[in-house]
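#random but structural
TW: two for the price of one
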Amino acid sequence: MQNENRRFTVKDMKEELSRHKDDFELIFTEPITGDQLIFQRLKQRGDDLVQCEFDPPEPDIQF
């Protein structure tokens, strides 16, 4: 898994995901609150950089 002294690469992500079946749901959460983030897109930002973009969690609206 990723640590502070190395980059997390596409290869790393593929290796992590290869342990799971293709039809498993994949969710992303905000580490402090546990709120689920909504995947928006992957965008190439350089010759060797891909950014994962997420929308913020939907606010809980209580009436």
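TW: number two ↓
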Amino acid sequence: MTASPEASDPPPDAAAAPPDPAPSEPAGPDAPPPSPPSTLRSRLISVAKLAVAVGLITALFATGKIDASALGNLDRTALPWIAAAIGCIGVVLVCASIRWRLLLRGQGVLLGAGDAYRLTLTGHFFNLMLFGAVGGDLIKGFYIAKAARARSRTPEAVTSVFLDRIIGLAALTAIAGVATFVIPNEIAERKEIVPILWSVLAVNAVLVLGVVFIAIGWFPRILPETPQRMVDAVMRLRRRGSGGISAFLISVACHVLSISAIYSLGRAFGEEGIAFGSYFFLCPVALFANALPLTPSGIGVGEAAFETLFAWAAGTPDSLGGEICLLLRLVQLVWSAIGGLIYAFALGTPTVELAEEEGEKEKEAEGSGLGSS
């Protein structure tokens, strides 16, 4: 949700409408990215997704799968667990901004820590409140592309957002894969869990294969229209392997903290039937389901996934999974509100610089151009 992650040129003030994503190849260093026309089809899809979200939430409450009274029955003993969850999510956002800065540096682009954190919190706001799981990626991509345009590094900067999402998902997949070997047998052998377990292992096998291909320098162009500079950006990160490895390890830490937050919320509800280690298998699967672009921010889908998986793991028809997911959204709302305030009052176009080696290359190119004129 942190989970399971992503134009026009709007002013950065509170009255600004949410911007559309920047294209990977602008017309020129000073040309603003064009905005795609708004279509009736896209609006109808958004309305349909919202209707599905409302329908799922209504059905979960109507069938008693989510017990609204459980939220009202939380007492003072739950407060330390909820505070721990809020703290975990806060640290996750700090770590996520550090990871993104590493990936930007891997593309030869330097972004200040303050700007990275502000954009990360703003992205979190849009993830939860508007576009869904990729909404924050679109916002971050727009602003970093706008900042990098003057340095002619727009594709590399935008690619960092894509890499940030992919590495995060890869780390989540790896955690679920490792957890398949440590979850209790009584959960692993349940008929509902077995196909999920094998699917997780299969996805991890594909992940390992992809890592091998990148490590040996073979990056297939799956889509013919993939911009070559974006492919080059991926290979540049491979050549600076320490940055990619560090980003992956930070992603693992982020997911461990997120899963710990979910465990804390479970304890707030008095959930003690599922072992802490089992959360590292159940939560990634539920977060992947939540990330599916079926409803805004996965609302309804995430609750249903948590409810179902926790019920299967506990071997009972009902569980507190839906309530835990709902409370998780409220915890995320705390940080999302801060991100909204930043977007309204403190978010301007960030300033980026070229990394030292990139700056030297640019000077050499300018010098050679002067010499030949």
